[in-house]
Amino acid sequence: MGVLMTERANLVFHNKVIDGTAMKRLISRLIDHFGMAYTSHILDQVKTLGFQQATATSISLGIDDLLTIPSKGWLVQDAEQQSLILEKHHHYGNVHAVEKLRQSIEIWYATSEYLRQEMNTNFRMTDPFNPVHIMSFSGARGNASQVHQLVGMRGLMSDPQGQMIDLPIQSNLREGLSLTEYIISCYGARKGVVDTAVRTSDAGYLTRRLVEVVQHIVVRRTDCGTIRGISNFYSNINWSCISRRYIYGPTMHRHSKSRYWDWACQSIHNLSSTDNIDSNPLYL
């Protein structure tokens, strides 16, 4: 106990906001100082305190809590001006079409990332206790990317072929999307569902083709002579161990009495026997 009190005295007191990352570092520090048992006791107290404060705070999300970034207007105008200059260079033949697409994507990507960085600063300066800011940046619910689409800009989207579209979605979900922007974002919003459906159908089709190919094949020989097989040597193992680990007794009894009688069934037919398996290899 004396060592524990000494370690507790050496632990630095942190008087600051604890988010998800800081909590991980704190737990690691507690484990290093006090061990797993005492750390679990501390975490139980932290959990109880967290539930009490979350209930008393009653954080809820409203549309007025979605604060747009004031600098978004001139940032978008600057990106549009750069895109216009790039379009003129392409029109006069100074820039190739592929290079124009790459530079346009870089311009809008840089603008979107700058808005993402300004988002956290804007919340801290205007409303530090904003529910959106508390939930997302603490790691409790949501992430920075989702908040960026709510109050920043949705940014670049990909087409059904996976290529990036150089026409970005400048609006956010708080402002609302135009018809063109909504059509562009449709595939990006449903991409996960579409890909999952495609993969599921492909897997089922491949399985059916495999079954159709091998359904007429019947194994009739104990050893087919292939050099790519695996030979298993069983010795000094009783029958009960084999029956529990590798086969089901009733199933193998039925198979052994049917016309599909092979060397493997003969070897393990008598499950109640206490004899050991011989050292002959069993090719599977």
UniProtKB/TrEMBL annotation:
SUPFAM superfamilies: beta and beta-prime subunits of DNA dependent RNA-polymerase. The keyword Membrane does not apply. GO terms for cellular component: DNA-directed RNA polymerase complex. Its EC number is 2.7.7.6. Keywords: Chloroplast, DNA-directed RNA polymerase, Metal-binding, Nucleotidyltransferase, Plastid, Transcription, Transferase, Zinc. One of its GO terms (biological process) is DNA-templated transcription. Gene3D superfamilies: 1.10.132.30, RNA polymerase Rpb1, domain 3. Pfam families: RNA_pol_Rpb1_4, RNA_pol_Rpb1_5. Residues 97-161, 176-230 form the RNA polymerase Rpb1 domain. GO terms for molecular function: DNA binding; DNA-directed RNA polymerase activity; metal ion binding. PANTHER family: DNA-DIRECTED RNA POLYMERASE SUBUNIT BETA (PTHR48443). This is DNA-directed RNA polymerase. It comes from Vitis rotundifolia (Muscadine grape).
